[in-house]
Amino acid sequence: MERIKMFNDNFQNFKVYQIPHAQLIIADPPYNLGKNAYASNPAWYKDGDNKNGESELAGKEFFDTDKDFRPAEFMHFCSQMLVKEPKNGVTDEEIESETDEKKPRQKSKAPCMIIFCAFEQLQYYIELGQRYGFMHYIPLVFRKNFSAQVLKANMKIVGCCEYGLVLYKDKLPKFNNHGNMIMNCFDWPRDTDTPKIHPTQKPVRLLERLIEIFTDPNDVIIDPTAGSGSSLLAAAHLGRKAYGFEIKKDFFKAAQEKIMPLTRLRQTSIFDNSEV
């Protein structure tokens, strides 16, 4: 099988494709925003100016499959498709009880998943994850230097952050910090290099950073809601194997034409500048 592959299908049909289990599942599932998807975004109005009246995007969904997304089925898929945790992994409780006299432990090989979600969805996904065996989590905050809520800027404090979770079962996941302290608040870099084909497309540079923290070269990554395929591109840059599912034909076609050809290119590591 190809190292990087995207399927125009629902992730629930994964058995047909015989893809391997993943070290990391990374996903940006639909937020179920419905007809308020563009909300206070300038795109609601013609040329971004409310004086010009509403644009064709006013009162529209990002995509018509948004309302059909079933989070429980998504979480069930993720629980099935991660590699098994090693028996000699380390738990949070063991870390807390360690003393300085203990010898350095071996590097963990346990898997995890990363999910992007709205702030209001954090607790829901924490609880849903626990139902499917993901008993532990690390909240993530992604800080932007801009806000999409510009139409509310003169009325209230506007949001400039996106949110996410690292979910894992029992053992702490594989962790590549290269001697650095990695905190749970990340800068959100603007991505002007990657073709923009999806309204909620994530920056490749940010995805690279997350992927490199929790995986090694040749590890497998799965994105069940791949959208533009930017996560697959980030994985390719870092020498990982990656498989994605995208149900919408127009996004899949655009990804095949504009993103997937770029997965054949290589890029230096964002940590040590060595070629992967």
Order of helices and strands: EEHHEHEEEHEHEH
**CATH topology type of the domain at 4-32 and 69-95 and 105-136 and 161-264:** Rossmann fold
* CATH homologous superfamily classification of the domain at 4-32 and 69-95 and 105-136 and 161-264: Vaccinia Virus protein VP39
Give the structural class.
alpha/beta
Strands in their spatial order, largest beta sheet = 1-8-7-2-3-5-4-6
Proportion of helical residues: 10-25%
The top level CATH class name of the domain at 4-32 and 69-95 and 105-136 and 161-264: Alpha Beta
- How much of the polypeptide forms β-strand, as a percent range? 15-25%
Radius of gyration: 19 Å
Main sheet overview? 8 strands, mixed
**Uncertain spans, ≥5 residues at pLDDT below 50?**
267-276
Q: What is the average per-residue confidence, as pLDDT, rounded to a whole number? A: 86
Structure explained in plain terms:
- The structure is a single chain.
- The chain is an alpha/beta fold and 276 residues long.
- It has a domain at 4-32 and 69-95 and 105-136 and 161-264: Rossmann fold, CATH 3.40.50.
- 20% of the residues lie in helices and 15% in strands.
- The protein contains six helices and eight strands, in the order E-E-H-H-E-H-E-E-E-H-E-H-E-H.
- The protein has an eight-stranded mixed β-sheet with strand order 1-8-7-2-3-5-4-6, with helices on both faces.
- Helix 4 packs across helix 5.
- The two termini are 20 Å apart.
